[in-house]
Amino acid sequence: MVVHSAPYLFRKRGVYYFSRRVPKDLLDHYDRDKIVFSLRTKSSKAAKVKAASLASQLEEDWLTIRWRSKDTPLRKFLKDKAAEARVSSTAPLITEAGSIYLRAKGTNRPVTFRTAVERAIGKLTDLLGDKPIDTYTRHDVNLFRDACFERGLSKGSVVRMFGTLRAVINFTTRELGVDDVVSFSGIYLGDTVEGSEAKRPTIPMDVMRSVQSECRSIDDEA
Most buried in the list 31, 67, 112, 220, measured by CB within 10 Å? Predict the structure, then answer.
């Protein structure tokens, strides 16, 4: 079933798939003429966001391949300096930046610190791919933000995730002397309205005592 309102999508047994035909001039670089794979979601909103990001990644990949071709006539038409920078970027991948950050900052930190970094980077790469940190565009980051909210993450969770990503990227650019990356800065995450964030209810005392009793009975470590 083709989803007419969303390019490059079709649905099979309720699950959405991404499909994009490889341009004729690039067929030699692929082992098939069409790219098709499951997006592993039944949500139309999530599928549309991911399809848009994947289509954007493919356009960048194809631009890179054409740019590197010695006989391409595209060079004289390409005026986008950002596109040229993507091709020649020497910045680390976001996963490499995460490793650099954790090696320097993760010592003697609780396991939740590492988990937060790995979770934020994992969610980013799952949607946008593992790319050099200076090649994520503002459009990419806005797609990521929208996808987080579409998946039901609270505003607080999204704010913390973006804070983690900015910390990783800013630390890495300083350590390696890479130009500042501003794509993740100043992202609009919604207005702050007093009382808008859901407050977690206090755990009842009888439940706390029950848990404490169970921990003592099994000789649980502190």
Answer: 67
Report how far residue 141's alpha carbon sits from residue 166's, in angstroms, rounded to the nearest whole number. 12
Per-residue model confidence as pLDDT tens digits over 81-136: 455 555 567 889 999 999 999 999 988 899 999 999 999 999 998 888 888 998 88
* Distance, CA of 13 to CA of 214 (rounded, Å): 45
- pLDDT score for 6: 65
Confirm whether 5 is domain-assigned.
no
Q: E strands within 32-127? A: 34-38
Q: What is the pTM of this model?
A: 0.55
CATH number, domain of 164, equals: 1.10.150
Q: Which two tokens stand for residue 173?
A: 């650019």
| Residue 10 in domain | no
Tokens 């079933």 map to which residue? 1
Parent domain of 124 = 91-190
Three-point CA angle 143, 66, 88, nearest 5°: 70
CB atoms closer than 10 angstroms to residue 197: 12
If you search the block for the tokens 């998946």, which residue do you land on?
151
Domain count across the chain: 1
Secondary structure tally for the chain: helices H, strands E: 7, 3
Distance, CA of 49 to CA of 44 (rounded, Å): 9
Measured CA distances, 184 to 94, 162, 188 (Å)? 12, 7, 10
Q: Is residue 185 part of a domain?
A: yes
Q: Is 124 exposed, middle or buried (0-12, 13-18, 19+ CB in 10 A)?
A: buried
